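Posted in: Structural Biology > Protein-Ligand Complexes

Title: Requesting predicted complex, carboxymethyl coenzyme *A in pocket

I'd be grateful if someone could produce the C-alpha cells for the following input. Sequence and ligand are given below.
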Amino acid sequence: MKDIREIGEPVFSSGLENIYFSETKLCYIDGENGRLYYLGIPIEELADNSTFEESSYLLLYQKLPNKEELENFDRKLRENREISEILLKEEELIPKNAHPMDVIRTIVSFNGMLDEKATSRNEEELLEKANKLIAMLPTIVAYFHRIRNNLNTVKPDRELNHAGNFLYMLRGEKPSDIEIEIFDKTLILYLEHGMNASTFSAIVTASTQSDIYSSITSAIGTLKGPLHGGANEEAMKMLFEIDEKYNGDVEKYLKEKLARKERIMGFGHRVYKAYDPRARILKNLALKLADYTNNRKWIDMQIQLEEKAGPILGEKQIYPNVDYYAASIYYMLKIPFDLYTPIFAIARIVGWISHILEYWKSSGRLIRPREKYIGELNKPYIKINERR
Ligand code: CMC
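-- Reply #1 --
Done. Output follows.
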C-alpha cells in the first residue's frame, strides 16, 4: 500500500470515500460480500455466542477475555453505573423537550470537565475511564428519560447485565429474558463499524492530543445526524408515516418518495455494496420479537417495503442497513423513538474508545486533510466604502 506522502500529489475523494489514513486490527468490513468482523471474528459468531460485555472487552483489549478477565470487567461495569450527584442535578436542569442525543453529548462533556485527570494518557487510567463511560451512558439516558416524564429515577441494578439493566432503569420494571437477550444482541451489532463518521470525529479530536471526553463528545455530535446514527429513529418514523398517512400502502410511499428523490431511511451504506450482515441478523431478531409480542404489524411492513424497494434500489446496490430492523426491535421493546440513536451511542462508545486507544498507541498522527482550492487568487482588496 502506497503512503500518500510518497505519491506527492494530493488525491481528491469526495466525502473521503475509499481513503485509508490509518491501520486497524479492530474491524474489517468486506463491503463487496457483505461480511463484517470484529478482531477477525465474524459478526454472526459474536451475535450468536457473545454478549455486550464480552464483545466490548474484545474490542477494548483486542483479545477475547478468559473467565476471570471477563468477570472483573463485568463487575467494574456494574459498579460504575451510578452517576455523581452533580451530573444528576445537571440532568434535572436540562429542558425536558431536549433531544436525548443533545443530553448525552452535554453530560459526557460536563463529566469530562469534572475529571482532573482528563488528559491522562496512561493506558490503565484510560481503560478505567473507558469502563466508567461505557457503564454510565445507559444511566444518563435512562435518568433523563424518567426525569422528562416526571417519573422517579430508577437506580441501577447490579444483578442485571448491561442490556437488562438499561431496560429496567428505563421502564421501572424488569424486562423478560428474551427481551434482554434480543436487546443485548442489538448492542453487539452496534458496537463497532470501522472508520464511520462518528469514529472519525472521535479520532480527529484524539489526533490533536485532546482528551477522551472531548473525543467522545465530538463522536456523539456526529452520530446524531440522520445520515448516520439518527437513521434508526427516522426509520421508525417512516413506518408510522406509511401507516398513518399512506394507510399502510408501502408501494405508494416508496414511489412518491423516490420520485421526489428522497431517501428511504435505513437503506444504503457507503461501504456495503451487498446486504448489510447486521441487517440480516436483526431481521431474524425482529421476527422473533414480533412472535414474542404477538404483533407482526411493523416487521411485516418492513419486509414488504424491503421487497418492493429491492428491484428499484437493488440496481444501485442499496439494501437495508443496521438501522432498518433495529428500529422495529426498539419499538417492540417499548422504547421511545428518540432513544434509538442514544442506544446506538450506548453501544458504539465501545468502538469509539477502542479506536482512540488504538490510534494513540500507533501513529497518533495529527489528522489534517486538505481542500482543493477553486477560488481566484490575487484579487484586489476593496475598501469598505468603495464596495457596492
Ligand atoms: N434511499 C434512496 N436512494 C438512496 C439511498 C436511500 N436510502 N441511499 C443512497 N441513495 C442513492 C442516492 O440518491 C444516489 O443516487 P443517484 O446516484 O441517482 O444520485 C446514490 O444512491 C448514491 O448515494 P450517495 O449519497 O452518494 O451515497 P453515500 O455513500 O454517500 O450514502 C448513506 C450513504 C448512508 C448516507 C445513504 O445511503 C443514505 O442517506 N441512507 C439513508 C440514511 C441511513 O439509513 N443512514 C444509516 C447508514 S448505516 C448506519 C450508520 O453507519 O450510521
